[in-house]
Design a protein that fits this description.
This protein is mostly beta strands. The protein has a single domain (59-279), classed as Exo-inulinase, domain 1 (Jelly Rolls, Sandwich). It contains 4 helices and 17 strands. It has helices at residues 6-16, 32-41, 165-168, 208-211, and strands spanning 59-60, 70-71, 77-80, 83-88, 96-101, 109-118, 122-131, 152-160, 174-177, 182-185, 189-193, 200-204, 221-228, 231-236, 239-246, 258-264, 268-279. The two termini are 33 Å apart.
């Protein structure tokens, strides 16, 4: 059993002495600075926020000059002003194009990069994803056939240009690409699933629409993806957006795989830069 924290116990007891019980619906109004000073006097300290520009333990996976290590259709993907840009003016044959990073197939990792979408359409960060998997809805007799080496199947940290209320709610969510599972953890949700069980909502992070206020339209967004075992965390501009816990070791989300960037829809322009990867295993 952990040792009792007497200052905390005595302080809480003193604070509550003579105070009538509050109903659950009544907010507690406290001065935040005074509260923090009290907690620090008891030996508790707030964790320092991470510095998005601190790359200790990370390795760069973009160089700002070339597509080295990345694999995709060079008619769509190129380097412009230090960023990798995917651009489509007309509808793509399969409505998707991916740029695959072939330099690693990490299982547990932290990935951070800056991302923006302009002119409509969508994007997302693929991870633990596979290539070479048949594309849903495409028949063997269809022409043209997709180049499956450039098509990605697996988890995605979604990101969309807010062209409509529907698209606005997608950024930050956990989406399962090309598996038929679709959206698993919506923005603002903590979701869990297990073998043979449907995803269940554990709790909420914040209002979905309010979280959209953290998205920078037409600007650079700092995206952090964390994968630990069957737990996946999506953070945009320092704000937690979605958490998914997958307890099925055989699921498509729990396999080591590639990282990639998606372009979806047209006309669309997707840009990303300063991509850093910290593989953990």
């Amino acid at each position: 059993m952990a040792a009792l924290n007497l200052p905390r116990l005595l302080g809480c007891a003193a604070a509550l002495a003579g105070v009538p019980a509050l109903r659950a619906a009544e907010p507690v109004n406290q001065d935040a600075a005074a509260e923090q000073r009290t907690l620090e006097s008891w030996g508790f300290h707030q964790p320092e926020p991470i510095d998005f520009s601190d790359h200790a333990g990370y390795q760069p996976i973009t160089d700002g000059k070339t597509l080295a290590g990345w694999d995709g259709d060079t008619k769509i993907w190129k380097v412009v002003d230090g960023a990798i840009v995917g651009e489509a003016d007309q509808a793509l044959p399969f409505n998707h194009s991916y740029l695959v990073y072939r330099g690693a197939r990490p299982h547990d990792f932290d990935l951070k990069l800056e991302l923006k979408v302009e002119r409509g359409g969508g994007s997302g960060i693929q991870y633990r994803s596979q290539t070479g998997v048949p594309w849903r809805g495409v028949k063997p007799t269809d022409r043209p056939q997709p180049n499956l080496d450039w098509m990605m199947t697996g988890p995605q940290a979604d990101f969309w240009f807010p062209v409509s209320p529907i698209c606005t709610i997608f950024s930050g969510q956990f989406y399962s690409e090309n598996t038929g599972l679709g959206i698993i953890a919506w923005r603002g949700q903590v979701v869990v699933s297990g073998p043979g069980a449907k995803p269940r909502l554990v709790g909420t992070i914040a209002d979905r629409a309010a979280l959209g206020g953290y998205i920078r339209e037409n600007g650079w967004n700092e995206y952090l993806v964390m994968a630990r075992g069957g737990t996946f965390i999506h953070v945009i501009n320092g704000q937690l957006m979605a958490v998914y816990v997958d307890d099925d070791p055989r699921s498509s989300s729990n396999q080591s795989g590639f990282i990639g960037i998606e372009l979806e829809g047209a006309p669309t322009r997707v840009s990303f830069r300063h991509a850093w990867l910290k593989p953990l295993n």
